[in-house]
């Protein structure tokens, strides 16, 4: 049963998800506690789910798992009845779309592996994607207020971001995973984009999961809210339930949850200190390995050490 009590049209199903970032051998370091655990969630067609939680709670990790960027047991995560990691057609068909913040770090890439720091126009990028419905393309260009003559190596971060979002949304997705992509957008662009996305759910039955810390203009946007802390699901509620139980604004409601969590963490640390054990639980560091967030087997893991890490970050690997 999903958050809304519906049974039909299940689009996203997470069942007892457990995940640990792999070490260099592709396996979790021995003795490590899973980063994500006790996480189950069912979403339906038309759901707009806000994913909230403090920094480091696991939101990006969960979205990446859903987007097939990390391997998990295929029964733990189903998107449109399939496993995104194992069924790459889910992403390539455009049914499942992941728009993530790594674009911010790797500005050189705009999806479809197209470098955008070279002198290329917005038009060339957007019209370069084959098989797109011209009406949808025109609508997106309007919603994101894109000037097709922009040269992408010269525009502002926000303008470049608008082109990236447009490219990502060209195919009519069924499930969209958004990892805070509106930070660079101006107030108007953000509001128009959110309105467009809401329409996509209402008219086409798309499902969106949106991880964000920015609650401006979101009051009437989500249908559901999911709160994650320390990699565990804390709350999964339909918005009317949230409004029923809290008279506060959405932002204040989330703030109250996060404050409670932080106070609780501080209390636990104090207790640990008083008991003579280290305040912070040290993560298991089995093999001195840093994994830069890409699944094992994709040239991703690197031996710890700043020099190596810089040289083998995604930016370099993907050029
Ligand atoms: N590539 C990685 N390899 C190992 N551990 C990682 C990796 N990426 C993230 N982590 C760990 O996973 C935890 C969750 O990170 P994640 O990025 O999912 O959090 P988040 O909720 O998206 O945070 P934020 O709000 O800051 O974006 C972090 O505390 C970090 O220690």
From TrEMBL:
InterPro entries: AAA+_ATPase (IPR003593), ABC_transporter-like_ATP-bd (IPR003439), P-loop_NTPase (IPR027417). It holds the Pfam family ABC_tran. It comes from the Eukaryota. PROSITE patterns: ABC_TRANSPORTER_2. Residues 12-255 form the ABC transporter domain. Keywords: ATP-binding, Nucleotide-binding. One of its GO terms (molecular function) is ATP binding. This is ABC transporter domain-containing protein. It comes from Lupinus angustifolius (Narrow-leaved blue lupine). The lineage of its organism: Eukaryota, Viridiplantae, Streptophyta, Embryophyta, Tracheophyta.
